[in-house]
UniProtKB/TrEMBL annotation, chain A:
It holds the Pfam family BCA_ABC_TP_C. Residues 3-246 form the ABC transporter domain. This is ABC transporter ATP-binding protein. Keywords: ATP-binding, Nucleotide-binding, Transport. One of its GO terms (molecular function) is ATP hydrolysis activity. PANTHER family: CONSERVED COMPONENT OF ABC TRANSPORTER FOR NATURAL AMINO ACIDS, CONSERVED COMPONENT OF ABC TRANSPORTER FOR NATURAL AMINO ACIDS-RELATED. It comes from the Bacteria.
UniProtKB/TrEMBL annotation, chain B:
This is ABC transporter ATP-binding protein. One of its GO terms (molecular function) is branched-chain amino acid transmembrane transporter activity. Its main location: membrane. Keywords: ATP-binding, Cell membrane, Membrane, Nucleotide-binding, Transmembrane, Transmembrane helix. The chain crosses the membrane at residues 12-34, 40-58, 65-83, 89-109, 116-134, 166-184, 215-238, 250-277, 289-308. The keyword Thylakoid does not apply.
Length: 275, 331
């Protein structure tokens, strides 16, 4: 029982963003996808979540062929995500941002297909419990757009987890966070690991990645360069070479191979425009 | 403190009583005024209906009057000598809501992939197509001559004759529609519409079928348009295509914009202003439209978010009343 990518490729015109990628993500673990900017990490997330269609190959969740479904159907199967750039509903309250996740569950049977109809009381209970878990209870009634950036990142995380989805994709949850917030985010994500859930993390902060991942997949130019435990990735020569590509990242590899953790948190994309 | 609560509570009761008294007393005015009041109520209902699509779901629909026309002709077909069918008014009211909703879904399916300006233009064309269709389908609609001598509407045997009868019917429908729409706005459906308006893609990412969500907005709003058309046609006892021009669609959109998009209280204010204004301006003869246009421009410039601020909505009014009611008074 797992999420699998089988020989998946993605082309944008002449650009091959993902080339023949095969990966398996089992429940009960945290996976990280790393790689230099433009390696195709977000493209993988977007294909799994149905924002992009695959050019070739198949993505499956257990027995379902995810890659032939519409985006909302994929979400209904239990694949939820956050976005590299925040996509909250700014004009709605924090609580409402979570409530809409249960819209389809709250519909009468005719429009819902299966399951029982969620009542308003149940919905609010779930959402308030989630807000409590994510330390957002005090701002439940505030507009999402009025929260400080760090808390908006947490709210987006909460929105991805509130429905208990078995697969959660996190696209750079720590981007733009300060050191303390990043530490907090790492602790939070680690605590969300559960035997019935696969967490797939795209992240540039190597401290965060190395401290909480069970497996790290390294992408380079749309291809899987290496896949293994954090320690194995740190020692792998091919990975080091790939990261030697840019001057900014040279430093990181050096620090990583020396096995030292810098206090400021390492950002492979420091000063680079995000896509 | 207790004293001020007492005063404010008394003030509230007086205000509410004055409102109710005013509404009930309208029929005591000369028939001309009652007709204007009827017209205002019709446009409030239409605008509150269209607001579901424009204000909640954020889709600009410039052909809304087509659904009103569908409802009006539904009454004309089912309560006249045209096909010699004479169904009761209340039944046709329901059928009219149904045919309106059906027309909304038929329009919705092909156009909902479009956004923004493209959607506006296609809906505009749809409105015109319906009108031109009515104008040319002589066998069905008598074309430009329209259908006359429609049945007199009856509710439980009581005939609706005067503008006053229709005034009360429209008043009830206005309250019912505003209440139902307000309930929808507050429900999870209203929240999903707001999410859709803010970010369609992220909304789909939460497992929400956004096409269905838009269709629901189109269908509900068109049902309200259809039902209103039935009443209009029962009131006039005559329908012809010229009641359903693009100007009418535009007027309903204007009411929403001038009053305050997404705000039921604002829409009521917008309808009152835009319906009364031309009547008041009768004295200005040929300058009437010029002044009308100027007033609109002034309103838009001074209050770009509408006459009534977004914070002053029906929910705000209801909460104010509740708070005053529940607050302790130790006079
Ligand atoms: N929607 C798109 N249209 C065209 N090219 C895209 C699109 N999305 C991503 N790309 C390209 O695909 C490559 C991989 O991008 P992305 O997956 O965002 O990289 P990463 O997240 O690893 O930084 C980049 O060259 C990027 O420019
Ligand atoms: Mg990215």
């Amino acid at each position: 029982m797992a999420l699998t990518l089988e020989h998946v490729s993605k082309r944008f015109g002449s650009l091959v963003a993902i080339k023949d990628l095969s990966l398996t993500f089992e429940r009960g673990a945290i996976y990280s996808i790393i790689g230099p900017n433009g390696a195709g990490k977000s493209t993988v997330v977007n294909m799994v979540a149905g924002s992009y269609t695959v050019t070739s190959g198949v993505i499956r969740l257990d027995a379902h062929v995810v890659s032939s479904l519409a985006k909302h159907q994929i979400a209904r199967l239990g694949i939820s995500r956050t976005y590299q750039n925040l996509r909250l509903f700014d004009g709605m309250s924090v609580l409402e941002n979570l409530e809409v996740c249960f819209f389809t569950d709250s519909l009468p049977g005719l429009f819902r297909r299966g399951g029982h109809r969620m009542t308003k009381v149940e919905r609010l209970k779930r959402c308030h419990a989630c807000l409590h878990d994510f330390n957002l209870a005090d701002v439940a009634e505030n507009l999402a757009g009025d929260l400080p950036y760090g808390r908006q990142k947490v709210l987006e995380l909460a929105r991805a987890f509130v429905t208990d989805a078995p697969v959660v994709l996190l696209d750079e949850p720590a981007a733009g966070l300060n050191h303390t917030e990043t530490k907090e985010m790492a602790r939070r994500i680690a605590s969300l690991k559960r035997s019935d859930r696969a967490i797939i993390l795209v992240e540039h902060d190597m401290d965060l990645v190395m401290s909480i991942s069970d497996r790290v997949d390294v992408l380079n130019h749309g291809e899987l360069l290496y896949s293994g435990s954090p320690d194995a990735v740190r020692r792998n020569e091919k990975v080091q070479e790939a990261y030697l590509g840019t001057a900014a990242e040279l430093d990181i590899v050096r620090k990583l191979t020396e096995g030292r953790r810098t206090s400021g948190g390492i950002r492979a994309h420091a000063g680079v425009v995000r896509h | 403190m207790g004293k001020s609560v007492f005063l404010r509570r008394t003030g509230l009761i007086v205000t509410l009583l004055v409102c109710v008294a005013l509404l009930v007393k309208v029929p005591a005015l000369p028939p001309y005024y009652v007709r204007v009041a009827d017209s205002i109520l019709i446009y409030i209902i239409l605008a509150v209906g269209l607001n579901i699509v424009v204000g909640y779901a954020g889709l600009l629909d410039l052909g809304f009057i087509a659904f009103y026309a569908v409802g009006a002709y539904t009454y004309a077909f089912l309560a006249s000598g045209q096909f010699d069918i004479h169904l009761p008014f209340l039944i046709i009211l329901l059928i009219g809501a149904g045919t309106g909703a059906l027309a909304g879904i038929l329009l919705g399916f092909p156009v909902l992939k479009l956004r923004g300006d493209y959607l506006a233009i296609v809906t505009l064309s749809f409105g015109e197509i319906i009108r031109i269709l009515i104008n040319n389908a002589d066998d069905l609609t008598n074309g430009p001559q329209g259908i006359a001598a429609l049945d007199r509407a009856r509710i439980f045997g009581l005939p609706l004759i005067s503008p006053t009868n229709f005034y009360f019917l429209l008043l009830i429908l206005t309250i019912v529609v505003c209440g139902a729409v307000y309930f929808m706005e507050r429900s999870i459906l209203g929240k999903a519409w707001r999410a859709l308006r803010e970010d369609q893609d992220a909304t789909r990412g939460l497992g929400i079928n956004t096409t269905g969500l838009k269709l629901a907005a189109f269908a509900i709003s068109a049902a309200i348009g259809g039902a209103t058309g039935v009443i209009f046609s029962a009131f006039q006892r005559f329908v012809s295509p010229e009641s359903f021009t693009f100007q009418e669609s535009l007027l309903v959109v204007l009411i929403i914009i001038i009053g305050g998009v997404g705000n039921i209280v604002g829409i009521a204010a917008g309808a009152i202003l835009l319906i009364i204004l031309p009547e008041v301006l009768h004295f200005a003869a040929q300058y009437r439209l010029l002044i009308y246009g100027l007033v609109l421009v002034v309103v838009i410039v001074l209050r770009p978010n509408g006459l009534i601020p977004p914070a002053f909505n029906l929910g705000h009014v209801i909460r104010k009343i509740q708070a005053l009611w529940l607050s302790p008074s130790n006079t």
